[in-house]
Amino acid sequence: MEPRRSAARRPAARRPAAPPDPDDPRPQRLRALTDLLTPTAVRLAVSLGVPDVLATGPRTADAIAACCGTDPRATLGLLRRLVTCDVLEEVRPRVFALGELGEPLLDDHLRAFLDLDGAAGHLDRAWAGLGHAVRTGTAAYPQVFGRGFWDHLAADPALAASFDAYMDQWAAVWVPAVAPGLAARAAHSIVDVGGGTGGLLAAVLEQDPTLFGTLVEQEASAERARERFTAAGLDERTSIVEGSFFDALPPGEPVYVLAQVVHDWPDDAAVAILRRCAEALPAGGRVLLVERVPDPDHPSRDHVVMDLRMLVVFGARERTRAEFAELARQAGLTLTSVEDAAHGLSFVELRRAG
Ligand SMILES: C[S@@+](CC[C@H](N)C(=O)[O-])C[C@H]1O[C@@H](n2cnc3c(N)ncnc32)[C@H](O)[C@@H]1O
């Protein structure tokens, strides 16, 4: 039998070079699809603050460079590239104004999403390590930035604040839709493990004035949650445990929630977090995960993208029902139900095994 050849040694099924067919639009589409300069240029302009400089009217390239602290000649090149994709207009030679796609870049939400120096930008820049992640099945973020994502946030308060703001922006979409279902599943109290700045916990407590909540979080996000609870008049009904969910959790509570936490971690770490929940859980208690649960054979486009993002950033993944069941088993828990929540998220309920 012929030995199996590795994919790398298999002869490539390439066609011999032929003159391009002018009637075939696909090569051009592929070039547009694979261009790296345009997205980088647009995002760099946002990071440098070019749209803000032009918010009050046209400026020369030299004036823009002076405001942005950049090299004048190089800035002229960047600005002219942005003209070719309608972000800017060159109203006179070397004088630029916001173009059709430049105006929306004054929007704070969009800017936070595109800014290469913010958390969303860092998450996207990790795509540069996709090759490493696909070859090894491990995180690329440490390769690209020299340390893991959570370590990076711990060392850079501005980046951590930007990540909290990024999560809060998404939370404004899903929390109002998910909080009522969570409140209905809560008993007299609820622990939100890795609960970020407390948006979900506050929304759940607002559903039911008899509920108490505990947030387990790292220091900086916990501080922002404290401010939120105080502003919402929830100090009496909340407590905050500053610390790691890899350490013992407050014991004996009826419901432990982990929203979009398990998907950040590779299997070993995910099992360790669930084991901390299992150890804290009283008889009859529940762990509720709020996660995306893709269909193993027909994942949605969002699931596919998020799965790759979790791989590249954390060496983790989106998990199917069977994969959550296996994690739960290893942590001494049993998966008892998976129910749709909202916005592509599901409630995954785990109880103590046996
Ligand atoms: C993807 S965010 C989810 C936040 C929130 N649950 C939500 O759904 O918006 C993951 C959270 O885990 C927190 N986190 C990361 N490592 C942690 C640790 N070792 N202990 C406690 N929290 C941690 C982060 O600070 C972050 O707020």
TrEMBL record:
Pfam family name, one: Dimerisation
Membrane-crossing segments per the record: none
Keyword S-adenosyl-L-methionine: yes
Domain of life: Bacteria
Keyword entries, A-Z: Methyltransferase, S-adenosyl-L-methionine, Transferase
All residue ranges annotated as the O-methyltransferase dimerisation domain in the record: 36-106
Sequence ranges assigned to domain O-methyltransferase C-terminal in this UniProt record: 127-333
Any Gene Ontology biological process: methylation
Sequence segments annotated as region (Disordered): 1-29
Start-end of Basic residues biased regions: 1-13
S-adenosyl-L-methionine is among the record's keywords: yes
The protein's name in its UniProt record: Methyltransferase
Species, as recorded: Pseudonocardia oceani
